[in-house]
Amino acid sequence: MPDDAERLRSAFARGELLHPVSATPSLVDLARALAMRADVPDVEVSPAALELRDAVGPAEHLLLVLVDGLGLVHLQTEARAPFLREHLVRTLLTPFPSTTAVALTSLATGAWPARHSITGWWSYIPSIGATVTALPFTRRIDDKALELLGVTAEDAFPVPSMWGACPRDVLCVQPSRIAGTTYSVYQTGGHAAAGYGPIREAFELTWRHVEQADGPTFTYLYFPQFDAAAHDRGVLSVEAQGALGAIDEGLRELVGRFAGRVRTVVTSDHGHAFVPEERRHRLRSGDALASMLRDLPSGDMRAPSFHVRPESREAFAEGFRTRFGHSFVLLTPDDVEELRLLGPDPLTEETRARLGDFVGVSLGIDVFGYVTADGNRRALQQPSHHSGLTALDMQIPLILA
Predict the structure, then answer these.
(1) pTM of the complete model
(2) Which of the following CATH numbers is that of domain 4-17+276-385: 2.60.40.10, 3.30.1360.180, 1.20.58.220, 3.30.420.240?
């Protein structure tokens, strides 16, 4: 039987999975292109970034809209989003793992995960020996605020946001519950954030920012509503399509109101794939494999990372492959680096430490979840997931208006 790295290579070769580093431009390239257009100094340049910079074009007022969870295929075939479909210009690939924490950190830094060290919705922080939920900035096991554990934003996010150096009038427009949080401040490099309630309020805040500006602006507008509804109800649910329809209609009105004075760029961080119950795999806290771990699994639902007790590494690898090997490969950090799964750069020491001893990679839409002693299994009850390497996960739209 071929080894796990070779199994993954074969899946790429057959087109069953998409490699994050390819001829298709990535979200990393878009981040660099926008930073160049927004006059950020010393931006790392790549050929694809220059291509996207030219596609965006010069703009005194630049608006970046991120619709969380809006994969390319959903926009093309299912979405209640005629305005977005009309202005779709090309396909991008998001970094792997294809999940919000990873993608937004690449958008903030212009760096691949191999360098910025966010390895999934959950990341292991060596300095406290624990798995954390990076964006809410809490310890996974008990939701304790990381600040209370002595963890700073610089500890959790070792690559600084490039937007801190943007000389424009920068505003981040986010839901009120996340505006001004630790990750929000990090992501914008300390620039101002404005919180909104109803979706329509987000467009009004964006309009005011441009109208009241004395010079060039960069506005970042973030919509998590479609993703939240897709997780809980499915991409085609009334709730998900209603949220997307409100975003689409609001953007159509806003762009018309701007009358050509603002370049609007819309993209996403990942897509979604429906997962039937039989393809949701569980490791329970009392399981023999779980007892071999030094901490809770990190990473994400299609890309779990495992920190294993030294004496149990061989037994864990054998046990994982026996039970989950039909749906997942199990890689070492060396394999991850050789396969360039986290980008073309070598893994930093911090990234290696966060990946732990092994990384599981889903060979399709299968997901892996850890069920705690109190039975917490909310994520595994959700019908739709992401973070994998399928086209549903990886392909995101680039929309220009």
Answers:
(1) 0.96
(2) 3.30.1360.180
